[in-house]
Design brief:
Layout (H helix, E strand, L loop, with lengths): L4 E5 L4 E7 L5 E5 L6 E7 L7 E4 L2 E4 L4 H8 L9 H8 L2 E6 L4 E7 L3 H13 L5 H19 L2 H13 L13 H4 L4 H11 L5 E6 L4 H11 L9 E2 L12 E5 L6 E7 L8 H18 L4 H8 L8 E7 L2 E9 L3 H17 L4 H17 L4 H11 L6 H10 L2 H9 L6 E7 L9
Parallel strand pairs: 3-9, 11-15
Antiparallel strand pairs: 1-2, 2-3, 4-8, 4-9, 5-6, 5-10, 7-8, 12-14, 12-15, 13-14
Helix pairs in contact: 2-3, 3-8, 9-14, 9-15, 12-14
Length: 431
């Protein structure tokens, strides 16, 4: 009998079991009585992993490789598709690629272990033909065109390209038509061998599953590997933006905009970094959230609309605040927002405002435990980090006004850029 350890948060009355399989895969089981059992298998390989060292040499992947590989993972040796098996067994399966990882998952009310076996077998082996790669290239190419036609996507990408010089997030997760033309069956096979190692995978099951049976099923398809994950290389960037203003000419009735403030990236993905992130998110929400004085004032004046949004993003080698929306005066909104941040460094928010935002963030964090899919997704993805959702709860509980004020004061509004899309004649500036 393999030993599973227990992690428990008595405050919220939640617990999970965890172990490292003899193959190296991390296994997490969250016992919940939801109607549907969920399983998420996460690989620590995403769209940002395009440059890495292999055998002492620097190797560069075409943008979109991780996403392309995700699309081919369910192809079987006989040419069939694992999705058909999931359908037969009543499993609702899907997959996605982010900049940081790739996830494969399913939910099932019946035949859970049979569905789990399909998932493990599909990810535990890789089969691809030249013909299927060409077919998939056409499918992904159509997806790329579809996203390229969305003004919101263009503005978001435009802002990223304006802020960053070389960070991988400058390229879309799906790549470009040019980059995916460079992806071959041989390249996909090499990447699978390099990154889809069991020690680079995390499985989270949410439901009433038997721990030992899950452990044994993993062992059926995964064995210890002598290899190791190649070291991803992301060149460090300064906090200065590439360009301060980027204009796009797109078919929009009202101008769309997104502006950002570039921040120093975290040196490590640990609890300390997550606490800084929580403090920044709280500061941004206090300044620009729907309950903020800023939003209420300028919404009533017609300067802001329902699409107004503000948030904080971070990953390896990057960190920035984003404010986006639609309206006729994007640059005035940016000017007022930057001024708001500076004024709040002199006159901080009230204690009541801080408590309101802290409670809201805490409630959002706890809401994860209301959904089996959310639980499995979060715990599987966080397994590669040095903390989990329980740590995030404790971080929010311990967050102080001083923490948020320090985070606010560290925001340098001079490192900002804006991207605006308006309906005007002329050619778009390429992204």
């Amino acid at each position: 009998m393999n030993c599973f350890y227990t992690s428990e948060n008595r405050l919220i009355k939640e617990k999970y079991l965890y172990t490292t399989h003899e193959s190296g895969m991390k296994i997490i089981l969250v016992p919940k009585s939801f109607p549907t059992q969920e399983a998420f298998l996460s690989c620590d390989f995403g769209a940002a992993d395009t440059v890495f060292f292999e055998n002492g040499e620097l190797f560069t992947l075409p943008a979109g490789t991780a996403h392309f590989l995700e699309h081919k993972m369910f192809e079987q040796a006989d040419g069939s598709d694992s999705f058909a098996e999931f359908d037969t067994l009543g499993g609702n399966a899907n997959a996605y690629t982010s900049y940081e990882n790739t996830c494969f998952y399913f939910g099932a009310t019946d035949n859970f272990y049979e569905n789990l076996e399909v998932l493990l077998r599909s990810v535990g082996s890789f089969h691809v033909s030249a013909a299927s790669v060409e077919k998939e290239r056409a499918i992904i190419g159509s997806e790329i065109k579809m996203y390229d036609d969305r003004p919101e996507t263009a503005v978001s990408r435009g802002l990223t390209s304006a802020m960053y010089f070389e960070h991988p997030t400058v390229m879309p997760i799906s790549g470009t038509e040019e980059s995916i033309s460079l992806i071959t069956p041989e390249l996909l096979g090499r990447v699978y061998k390099d990154f889809y190692l069991p020690q680079n995978l995390s499985l989270c099951v949410c439901g009433e599953a038997d721990a030992q049976r899950v452990y044994e099923l993993v062992g059926k398809y995964f064995t210890p590997s002598a290899g190791s994950r190649p070291e991803t290389v992301i060149k460090p960037e300064g906090v200065h933006v590439k360009e301060e203003r980027r204009m796009l000419h797109l078919p929009v009735a009202t101008p769309l905009y997104a502006f950002g403030i570039k921040l120093p990236p975290d040196k490590a993905d640990d609890i300390a970094a997550e606490k800084r992130a929580a403090a920044i998110r709280t500061a941004v929400s206090l300044a620009f959230g729907r309950a903020s004085e800023f939003y209420c004032r300028y919404y009533s004046e017609g300067l802001l609309g329902e699409r107004f949004w503000a948030g904080y993003s971070r990953m390896r080698g990057m960190a920035h605040i984003t404010v986006s929306g639609s309206g006729k005066e994007p640059e005035r909104v940016m000017e007022l927002a930057l001024r708001e941040l500076e004024e709040r460094k002199k006159s901080f928010f009230t204690h009541g405002e801080f408590l309101r935002e802290k409670r809201a963030a805490y409630a959002d964090c706890l809401s994860v435990f209301d959904s089996g899919e959310d639980i499995a997704s979060v715990f599987a993805s966080d397994a590669r980090r040095g903390y989990d959702e329980y740590d995030c709860i404790e971080i929010l509980r311990s967050l102080t006004e001083e923490d948020v004020f320090r985070a606010l004061c560290a925001i340098d509004i001079n490192n900002s850029a804006i991207c605006i899309a308006e309906n005007a004649k002329g050619k778009d500036k390429s992204l």
